[in-house]
Structures are given as structure tokens and as C-alpha cells.
Amino acid sequence: MKLVLLSGGSGKRLWPLSNDARSKQFLKVLENDNNELVSMVQRVWGQITSNGLGESSFIATSKSQIEMMQIQIGSDVPLIIEPERRDTFPAIALAATYLYSFKGIGLNEVVAILPVDPFVENHFFGAVKQLEEVLLSSDSELALIGVKPTYPSSKYGYIIPSESIISPSDFQRVSHFREKPTEEQAEELIQQNALWNCGVFAFKLGYMIQILEEKGLPIQYEELAKQYHTLPKISFDYEVVEKTNKIAVLPYEGYWKDLGTWNTLTEEMKNQQIGKGTISEDCHNTHLINEIDIPVSILGLSNVVVAVSPDGILVTDKSASPRIKDFINYDQGPMYEERQWGWVRILDDQKYEDGRCVLTKRIGITEGKNISYQMHSNREEVWTFVKGEGEFIQNGNFIKVKAGNVLHIPMRTMHGIRAITELEVIVVQSGIQEDVNQVVELYSTWEEVAQNCLKV
Fold first, then answer.
1. Domain(s) of CATH 2.60.120.10: residues in the chain
2. How sure is the predictor about 168, in pLDDT bands with cuts at 50, 70 and 90?
């Protein structure tokens, strides 16, 4: 069995910490057994590997998340790259063609799909392993995991079984689905032995390939990737699951939670506070997550989340926090990004009446890492080094730099830098707003730069 972990979402419901460059699954707010802060994807991938599934697992993610994924779980994890975000049906279709045409997986191989953001115990993955047996012994086209509800929730979809449990496989036939009912309706569904739909399911690879052929879509990965922008933005549940007749569900009784919103995420955080600030003693069930250096004080407020990042500030009642996705539509790029070589934080972004634009950012470069040898077509830069030492090259000329040095980099000038020690730079980039800036990269590694450019 092959396992595909879906990790392509944007995670706007966890704004302002999540953005287009750092989706919700990359936020380090959970704790592992060593009391270290880890992200959702780090936690789930750790569980996958500890349960012996790592060697047969892949992660489907968008092109914009490759760098962050490699930073957090390593460059050796096999990735299936989506050209853009388009929902779960296109993502799973692309993953199927990748396994079939690129990896040569047989049509009878079982493929299990798992979302990136469930908070589960390790034995949940025992149920994932069972999906192959359930699929084959039930002669179904799809096999799902359904979580036995612990309360009537209106946040989840429900799987309604059509018959009692069948021994020895313990699976049930699926009658139909119900998406996010009211709490009263959920209570009635639970009386019918309905299960929470946790978004985990399995199918034979040939089943998905057949669906693509019936839709007239390519079954070769590269060809489908070229047409990816034309695929409908629709979930796999709506496009496939609800149109499938032969479905089995494996009931799972154990802890499971979707960590997609601030109220559910904070329930699993061991610390009430991350970052600078104060929460007064008369606050109850209140969480502060602060990623900037300005302290935040919370006095006399209970059942709230205060989240602060360079992208913005959120103050919300926990019960209202899922609505954030409907309110966030700010026309700005990410103000903070983690990169393979370090990080970038936007300090100021100004546009003036005379057409000039000035972008000020603070850049941190990890010891031994480098920024590629590149040039800007229509922006000049002034670099002020505030911490550490490095090697800088400009149009083939090599110099050593350290804290206190200031450099001017004209437009269309090749330049790059490597950190000898941990390095921080304030970069002021300016130009004419109407002149679109293109970044031209010549070499990405310092070895290439040293071999082809350095004049010591």
C-alpha cells in the first residue's frame, strides 16, 4: 500500500501566522515528547515513519511549499508537486498519475489518502494500515475511516452506515453522507451509528486512473500537470466519493481532531503563551501566540486567542475563530518567510507619489548557507550588515563583510553572499513601481559560484 499525505492548503483559518508562504501545517505550535515545538506536518510525518509507513509514503504539496517542506522534514522525503492550489480532487488525480506513470506503481496497488492536519494517537495508523484489507475483503471501490463521535458536532461531515458491523474485518457498508449538520441533526445521526468523516480513504490505483480516462484527462503525470490549471476546483468528496456506490467504512474509536482552526489548535497546545507578552491570572482558556518582538498584554479576557505576526494581529473569541477565513482578504504578500538558507522579514513597504517604491526587509542567513548568485532587473539595493560575517561577491569581485559594513548594489548587478557565521542584513530595495522587477539567478550553490565567478 502507498500512502499520500495531502499538504497543499493555504490555511487562512490560522491567519495571521499562516500565509501563502507558510501554511497552517508548518506552524510550530505543538510540542513533541522532547518538549520541542513542532508543526503539524512534522508531527504527522514522525508518526508515519514510526509506524513503518515512511518508505511507502509521499507528500502531495503545492509548488510554493517545496522549500518550507524540505526545511521542516528534510530534502529526502518524496514530494508530488502540484503546479498550483486547486482543491483535493485535482491533487489526488495528479498524485495518482505520478504513482502510475512516474513511479511505475501497478493498477492493483492500494493507495491511501491522509490529510496533513489531523491530531491523532499513534494507533490511528494501525487503522490506516487496515484499509487495504478492508478494501479487498469488502470488494469496494473505496474504503474510508470513520471516527466514532464523542459529541454531536456541527463542524464535521458524517458517514452514515447501511448495515451493522461485519466480522471479522469490522467494516461497514456506507449508505450516504451528511455534510456539517446542526447539532440537533448530528445527535440524530449518531443514533444511527453515523461516524465522523476524517478525510482518510483508500482505493486501488486503477480505480482513479479509470476515472481520469472516463473524464478524458491524461493519465501521464507530466501531461496532467500541464493541464492542471483547467481542472475543476472541487473536493474529492464531491467529485468522486459521493458518486461512488460501493464504499466500505472502518470505524475507529480513539482520539481524533481536525486542527484547522484556532479554537481546535489551541486545545492541543501545551503552552498558553508562545512569545513575548503577559496573560493576567483572571484570564481563563486564553492563548497568546506572538511572533514579533513587541510584547502583548492580555487582561481579564477569557476564551480568546490573540495571534500576532508580521502579517497582522488577530483578536478573536475562540468560538468565532473559524470565521476568520471569510474576513481575511488583505492585498499583501507574506511579511515573513522561512527559506532554506534562513528567513526574510518585511519591515516596511512604501509606494510614493512620484512612482518610486521602497521595500525594507531584514534577512537572516544561517551559518554556512548562501543566497544564490543573482541580479535584479529594475531594483537597486543598499545592504547594511548588522550581525555576523560573510563572503560577498559582486560581478565576480569577492570581499569579506561583517557587521557595520554597508554595500550599494546597482540594478542589473550580479551578486551573492554566503554566511561564515550567522548573518543578518537590512536590505533597502528601491526602484520605479511601474518597472516590473525580474530576479535572474545564475548559480544557486556557493560551490558553483566559487568555481565560476570568484576572483580572489
1. 341-452
2. very low
What number of other Cβ atoms are within 10 A of residue 429's Cβ? 18
Classify residue 230 by burial, with Cβ atoms within 10 Å: 0-12, 13-18, 19+. Answer: exposed
Closest CA to 428 of 310, 346, 337: 346
Residue type, 340: Q
Q: Give the contacts of 363 (CB within 8 A, at least 6 positions apart).
A: 342, 343, 344, 345, 371, 424, 425, 426, 427
Q: Where in the chain is the domain with CATH 3.90.550.10?
A: 2-262
> Are 141 and 243 a contacting pair, CB within 8 Å?
no
End-to-end CA distance of the chain: 54
- Residue 456 banded pLDDT, cuts 50, 70, 90: very low
Q: Are strands 142-147 and 195-204 parallel, antiparallel or unpaired?
A: antiparallel
Cα maximum dimension of the chain: 78
Closest C-alpha to 81, from 241, 226, 194: 226
pTM beyond cutoff 0.85: no
To the question of domain 341-452 being in CATH 1.10.1040.10, the answer is no
Question: How many angstroms separate the CA atoms of 205 and 226, rounded?
Answer: 21
Place of cell 530576479: 439
DSSP 237-278: HHHTGGG-S-EEEEEE-S-EEE--SHHHHHHT-S-SEESSEE
Question: Which CATH architecture best describes the domain 2-262?
Answer: Alpha-Beta Complex (3.90)
